[in-house]
Each structure stands twice: as structure tokens, then as C-alpha cells.
């Protein structure tokens, strides 16, 4: 009976190993957090931690970088997210994720190429001490712990640049998902630029209050909004590119380009007011070429290029919004008042929407301006006024009509290889202006074109070149780590233990290429060290160590060998 029991347990363990192996290959890998398959289990990093570019990391659980501590992620590092995993940099903590053009930092799904989906894991959340218009708010509805906000507009949460975030947006519950990159109360001493969020199951980017400035952002294939601003956010943003996949949208809500609110409870008057300043934005909706508009899937939830509401004062300049069904929806009393008195400014924005929303005589949302509303005449003038009157050229035509977008961009036929540079003869060329006080801030680079891309410069020379990926489904992250570290050019230093599974003992064999400090440890699925086999200097040569089951409970374990220039991990199973 004992032999039969061991056979049954071995079969069960084999199935478990097989399921884990689909996500965690036998190549080197380090578990961050409470352990694979741990869901929303919290893990608190209460020390300063630096990752290694030579390792592949598996982010598990809700990984909190606790206040006053930091996490440093070197250029070229790859971090793969387990189901529901999220990285949360809490208020007072710091992240130093400084990728480069040639070596971006990649956060992606643990699933293999061809099987990844939006929402495979959570996302990245950075919380700071800059002002917002809520009192000790909880991020993401309280599903994820962590408050944000404060009184320091210049608070510093670290550096986040040349980073890709792929397939985030895990749905914890209906209408409560994590965004690709969430920023709560992040201050303007934080450095955020050259980020690409791809295939998020919620917003690609969302700012909750704060003052952080950002530039060179890409939102690709998300389901909800591209750029969402709330709770008094006052940062400046330039050179932003949003591109929709026509086959993906938010099944429970509205999929818009911009969405901006002051706060969510009427009369929406909490201060500071939401007033971000955007310039040189290119938002391309699902109808990225003329022929796609009549072919969008039935039942899709794509709506406006921009929804501006709930007392926001969002301002936008020198930009283009094209390929969404409808144009701009300007809603709610205070928002319309801000537009009427020119506090909410849109200047030199080209809009190419596909049709008129219900109840409107043009592509913008006229249904929110009742005839009895005293503000409505001013709002109509706000939309309809064009040059030469007062330089109030909000949009490309005085009364915007449905139009397609082929004349705007060079070549948008290929979703995975887009070319949104201004086409020859496009109205985006030479029609930017910088006479408005909001964009005379030194933060803004004054260029002569609308949108995010330089005319007559090929895409391999644009700011997206080198570090972005518009086909993240096909990427082989494991192979990229092998290529980068050079592990593919030699035999692995760490052999699979034998026997495996084992009882009562197993042997681990390994080699050391040169004299160096070496660590060989066994740890459980929670990432806790249970056996230390080597912790000191070894000369070059081959070695072996024995592990006995006396101090180990039955189950799955990992053992990791690290030293100068190498870091490898394998798994083993104890039977009892």
C-alpha cells in the first residue's frame, strides 16, 4: 500500500510539475513574491533590492515595495507576471527601472508565445505623496492595498523609463481591473518616459492626482481608455501614441481615447482641479484605415476619441485623434463652463471621426448640450470657431463632419508595423503653434507638426525605434534572456538533480567556470530559503551536493546557483 501511495503521489506531482513547466521553463528563473500560483497573496519587500539582468524573473502575488525601500531593475531585465500578480511601489518607496533604447525593461505574461491574453497578470502601480483631491484614497478600489497623495508636488518615486508592460489588466472582479501603468499621487521629481503598454484589459495609463510629467508614451491594443486622468492630476505630457486593435474593446464599458474626470461624485468640485496639459498626441482608433470602418466587429464598444467630463480642465494642443467612431464628448456643467471661459483649452487638434453620435449634427456629442442650457450656445461656438477668429482653431473644420483618415498618416494598414508619420499633404504638417501660455513651459519641445511623429522621418529613426514591440504575442522572452546572457553558447552550469522526484536523497551537480563567491540554496514556492548548500568562495571546477528529505516536507522546491556572471534555477520534488 505504501508503494501504491507513492505511485499515486508521484503521478499527482508529475501533473503539477507539467502544469508549472508550461509557465516556468527549466531555464534560469527567480521567483519574486510569495510563490507561483499564489494569486492575490501579499508579499512585502522591506529592504532595498536590486535585480540582475542575467536572470529571468517571475512576479507572483501582490508584490509591495514597502515605504522607504527601493527596487532597482537594470536595463534589459525581463519580468514575467503570474496570474493576478502586480508590482506596487507604495507611497514613500522608490523604483529605479532605467532601461535603454537597446535594452528596454520588459514586464510581460508568463504564458508562452501565441497563448498570451490581455489581463494575464496585474500591472505596475506607482504611488507617491503629491497632491490629489481625495483624502487618503485607496488605489484600485481597495482590492490592492496602498494609499497615495499628500502635500509634496515635487515628491520623487524614482525612475521608470524605456519599459514595456505587456498583457496586464488582471480582472479581480467586474469593473475592477488593474491598469497597465497606474500612477497615484506621483510627484514631478519622478522620471517617467519611453513607456509602452500593450494589450491591457483596462486603461493603458491612468493618473490619479499627482503632478508627474511624462513623455514618449505608447498605448497599444488596450480595451478601455488609452490615457485616463482623475482626482486632480496636473502633469504635462508630450509625444503620446495610442493605437487600437479593432478586435479588442472593453466588454463592460466604453472604449475611448482620452477620458478625464475631476472626481466621481457630483458636483465634482473637489480641488485641486484635474488639469493635465497634453501636446503632440496621436490617437488612432480601431478604424485606422478607411476600409476598416464598415468592418468593425458587431457589438463593439468603441466610442469617442475623447470623453471630457465631471469638472475636468484637461487641455490639449497640436494633436490628432482619428479612427474612432465619434469625436469629442464634452459633458457636465462645470466642464462646459471651463470650456466656455477658455480654461479648458483645445488648440490645433485634428479630429477625423467616422460618424455622428445619436442626437448630434456633427461628430461631437451634441446630446449633452440641452437647448435650455444657458451654456450651450457658448459650447457650440467652442466647437465651431475656427481661424481666423481669435486663433480659436479647436479642430480641423468649423463644423466637423465624418471623414476617414488615410490622408493623415503614411501607412496604417499593418497593426504590427504601423507608420503614423504625417502623410504627404497631411494637415498635420506645419500646423502646430506654441502661442498659448500652457505650452510655453520649458517642458514642451516646440515642433512644427501636430501629433507625435516627425514628418519625412522613417519609423526606424523615430522615437519608438529599438525599444518598442508591436507584436508582443510572438516574443520569446526565454530565448531573449539566453541570447543576452550568453548562456546559449555553453553548457548549463547547473544540472538537474538526480533522482527527481526523490526520497530519501538526491544529488545536485554543478560547475564553476572561475574562482568566485558562490551561492547554492534550496527554497520553497514562497521564495523562502530552506537549505543552504554553498555560501562562500569556490575554485573553478565541478562539484556536487546532496539534499536529504529529513528537513523537507513533501512538495515542490527550487534550487538556485549564483555567482559572478551566472544565475540559474531549477526545480525538484520531494516525495514522502
Summarize the structure.
By secondary structure, this protein is mainly beta. Helices cover 8% and strands 33% of the residues.
CATH-level-2 architecture of the domain at 2-19 and 504-574 = Sandwich
Overall form: elongated
Characterize the biggest β-sheet.
14 strands, parallel
Q: Averaged pLDDT, please?
A: 86
Share in β-strands = 25-35%
Tally of extended strands? 34
Q: Which topology of the domain at 2-19 and 504-574 does CATH recognise?
A: Immunoglobulin-like
Integer-rounded radius of gyration:
26 Å
CATH class of the domain at 2-19 and 504-574: Mainly Beta
SS summary, helix count: 4
Instruction: Please report the distance between the alpha carbons of the first and last residues.
Output: 13 Å
Low confidence ranges:
1-28, 387-399, 487-491
Helix content: under 10%
Structural class: mainly beta
Description:
The protein is mostly beta strands and 576 residues long. The chain has a domain at 2-19 and 504-574: Immunoglobulin-like (Sandwich), CATH 2.60.40.2550. It has four helices and 34 strands. It has helices spanning 2-23, 333-340, 376-384, 477-485, and strands spanning 30-32, 42-45, 49-50, 56-59, 62-65, 70-73, 78-81, 86-89, 94-98, 105-109, 124-127, 158-166, 171-173, 176-177, 181-184, 191-198, 205-208, 214-220, 227-230, 236-243, 258-260, 277-284, 304-308, 315-322, 326-330, 346-352, 409-411, 419-422, 505-512, 516-524, 529-538, 541-548, 555-563, 566-574. The strands form six sheets. Strands 1, 3, 4, 6, 7, 9, 10, 12, 16, 18, 20, 22, 24 and 26 form a 14-stranded parallel beta sheet that branches. A ten-stranded parallel beta sheet has the order 2-5-8-11-15-17-19-21-23-25, with no helix packed on it. Strands 31-30-33-34 form a four-stranded antiparallel beta sheet, with no helix packed on it. A hairpin with a 7-residue loop joins β27 and β28. α2 (333-340) packs across α3 (376-384). The longest helix has 22 residues, at 2-23. Residues 1-28, 387-399 and 487-491 have low confidence and may be disordered.
Amino acid at each position: 500500500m505504501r508503494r501504491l501511495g507513492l505511485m499515486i503521489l508521484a503521478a499527482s506531482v508529475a501533473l503539477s510539475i507539467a502544469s508549472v513547466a508550461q509557465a516556468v521553463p527549466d531555464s534560469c528563473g527567480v521567483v519574486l513574491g510569495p510563490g507561483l500560483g499564489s494569486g492575490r497573496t501579499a508579499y512585502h519587500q522591506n529592504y532595498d533590492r536590486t535585480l540582475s539582468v542575467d536572470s529571468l524573473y517571475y512576479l507572483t502575488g501582490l508584490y509591495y515595495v514597502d515605504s522607504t525601500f527601493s527596487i532597482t531593475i537594470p536595463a534589459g531585465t525581463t519580468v514575467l507576471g503570474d496570474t493576478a500578480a502586480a508590482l506596487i511601489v507604495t507611497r514613500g518607496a522608490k523604483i529605479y527601472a532605467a532601461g535603454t533604447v537597446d535594452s528596454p525593461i520588459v514586464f510581460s505574461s508568463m504564458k508562452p508565445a501565441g497563448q498570451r491574453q490581455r489581463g494575464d497578470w496585474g500591472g505596475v502601480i506607482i504611488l507617491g505623496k503629491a497632491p490629489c483631491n481625495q483624502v487618503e484614497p485607496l488605489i484600485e478600489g481597495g482590492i490592492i492595498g496602498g494609499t497615495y497623495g499628500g502635500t509634496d508636488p515635487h515628491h520623487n518615486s524614482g525612475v521608470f523609463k524605456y519599459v514595456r508592460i505587456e498583457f496586464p489588466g488582471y480582472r479581480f472582479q467586474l469593473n475592477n481591473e488593474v491598469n497597465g501603468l497606474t500612477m497615484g499621487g506621483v510627484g514631478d521629481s519622478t522620471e517617467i518616459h519611453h513607456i509602452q503598454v500593450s494589450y491591457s484589459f483596462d486603461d493603458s495609463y491612468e493618473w490619479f492626482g499627482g503632478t508627474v510629467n511624462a513623455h514618449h508614451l505608447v498605448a497599444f491594443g488596450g480595451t478601455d481608455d488609452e490615457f485616463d486622468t482623475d482626482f486632480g492630476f496636473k502633469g504635462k505630457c508630450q509625444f503620446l501614441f495610442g493605437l487600437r486593435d479593432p478586435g479588442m474593446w472593453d466588454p463592460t464599458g466604453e472604449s475611448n481615447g482620452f477620458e478625464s474626470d475631476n472626481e466621481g461624485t457630483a458636483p465634482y468640485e473637489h480641488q485641486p482641479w484635474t488639469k493635465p496639459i497634453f501636446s503632440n498626441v496621436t490617437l488612432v482608433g480601431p478604424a485606422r484605415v478607411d476600409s476598416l470602418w464598415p468592418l468593425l466587429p458587431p457589438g463593439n464598444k468603441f466610442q469617442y476619441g475623447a470623453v471630457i467630463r465631471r469638472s475636468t480642465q484637461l487641455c490639449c494642443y497640436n494633436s490628432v485623434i482619428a479612427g474612432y467612431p465619434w469625436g469629442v464628448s464634452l459633458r457636465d456643467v462645470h466642464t462646459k463652463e471651463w470650456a466656455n471661459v477658455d480654461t479648458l483649452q483645445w488648440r490645433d487638434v485634428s479630429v477625423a471621426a467616422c460618424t455622428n453620435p445619436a442626437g448630434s449634427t456633427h461628430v461631437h456629442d451634441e446630446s449633452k448640450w440641452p437647448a435650455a442650457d444657458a451654456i450651450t450656445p457658448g459650447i457650440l461656438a467652442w466647437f465651431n470657431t475656427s481661424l481666423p477668429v481669435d486663433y480659436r482653431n479647436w479642430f480641423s473644420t468649423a463644423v466637423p463632419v465624418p471623414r476617414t483618415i488615410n490622408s493623415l498618416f503614411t501607412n496604417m494598414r499593418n497593426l504590427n508595423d504601423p507608420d503614423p508619420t504625417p502623410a504627404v499633404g497631411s494637415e498635420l504638417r506645419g500646423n502646430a503653434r506654441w502661442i498659448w501660455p500652457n505650452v510655453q513651459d520649458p517642458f514642451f519641445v516646440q515642433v512644427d507638426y501636430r501629433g507625435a511623429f516627425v514628418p519625412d522621418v522613417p519609423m526606424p529613426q523615430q522615437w519608438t525605434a529599438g525599444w518598442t514591440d508591436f507584436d508582443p504575442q510572438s516574443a520569446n522572452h526565454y530565448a531573449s534572456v539566453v541570447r543576452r546572457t550568453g548562456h546559449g553558447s555553453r553548457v548549463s552550469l547547473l544540472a538537474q538533480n538526480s533522482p527527481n522526484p526523490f526520497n530519501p536523497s538526491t544529488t545536485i551537480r554543478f560547475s564553476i567556470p572561475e574562482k568566485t563567491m558562490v551561492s547554492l540554496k534550496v527554497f520553497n514556492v514562497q521564495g523562502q530559503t530552506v537549505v543552504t548548500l554553498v555560501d562562500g568562495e569556490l575554485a573553478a571546477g565541478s562539484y556536487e551536493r546532496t539534499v536529504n528529505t529529513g528537513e523537507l516536507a513533501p512538495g515542490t522546491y527550487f534550487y538556485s546557483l549564483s555567482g559572478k556572471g551566472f544565475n540559474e534555477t531549477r526545480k525538484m520534488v520531494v516525495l514522502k
